[in-house]
Amino acid sequence: MTGGTEARHPASMHLGEMSPEDVLALMASEDPRALHAVDRVQAELAEAARRVAETFLAGGRTVLLGAGTPGRLAIQEVTELPPTFGVPSERFLALVASRAPVGPAGIAVTEDDTDGVTAALRDFHIGSGDVVIGIASSGRTPFVLAGIRAAAEAGAWTSGIANNAGTPLLMAADLPILLDTGPELLTGSTRLKAGTAQKIALNRITTTAMVVAGRVRSNLMTELRGSNAKLRERAIDIVSTLTGIAHDRAEAILVSNDWHVGETLRRLERRD
């Protein structure tokens, strides 16, 4: 058995015979390592966030590449950015390889496919002025590696997120980010600690980038759109909180601005 995320964890050699309580206790003892792995790369995450923010403000795009669990995390990340920060969906893209149906983001069935990702990057005209971030627990997934190399050749700035040290992905990217989560309790199941660390890292990169890009005021999502009842209530609260106007007036102005919080705030500021 190889090392890193594929190594057998000495504490879980008898996992198959454990009680539910003991399995959960063992997992609870290991899960903090995912957070600690992310905390150790704060400087690298800050650099990635700055690059994403600068790219967004300059009109460029950010692409997340992944296969399997990292691919599904990439889809979740980019899908949640438009409703949270009001960004155009075409500015944040996920290109993934997955056997499970994942919609238009799925451009390959297997992680060994190196042609699909390079063709997709070419079709999207990814190049100078764009950011491409590849995520691979092993750091050697052919789909992700091919994408990072193709993006770099096209002039894009690249970052690689992996959970094993000294891997090809970390060596190929402009900014390597090592999330050293160690072996999984269930050998090779990187949807556990490795995936948890990846999710936290992506959250930190994109949220920080959107703060830097001015899509947040105070700690409020000031570029969201009220597309459902819950978000409309939130939009009214945000406008009322930031401007001091009554809720009914905030609602009326939001309605006239298609429930876009940012446009509503800017309209009120122009009046002042």
Descriptive overview:
It is a single chain. This protein is an alpha/beta fold. The chain has eleven helices and six strands. It has helices spanning 20-30, 32-39, 42-57, 69-85, 115-123, 142-153, 168-172, 193-212, 229-243, 247-256, 261-271; strands at 62-67, 92-97, 106-108, 131-136, 157-162, 175-178. Helix 4 links the parallel strand 1 (62-67) and strand 2. Helix 2 (32-39) crosses helix 8 (193-212). It is globular.
Walk me through the topology.
Blueprint: H1 20-30, H2 32-39, H3 42-57, E1 62-67, H4 69-85, E2 92-97, E3 106-108, H5 115-123, E4 131-136, H6 142-153, E5 157-162, H7 168-172, E6 175-178, H8 193-212, H9 229-243, H10 247-256, H11 261-271
Parallel strand pairs: 1-2, 1-4, 2-3, 4-5, 5-6
Helix pairs in contact: 2-8, 3-8, 4-8, 5-6, 9-10, 9-11
How would you concisely characterize the structure shown here?
With 272 residues, the protein is α/β, with parallel strands linked by helices. 49% of the residues lie in helices and 11% in strands.
Strand count = 6
What is the rounded Rg? 21 Å
The amount of helix comes to 40-55%
Q: What is the overall silhouette?
A: globular
- Poorly predicted segments: none
Multimerization state? single chain
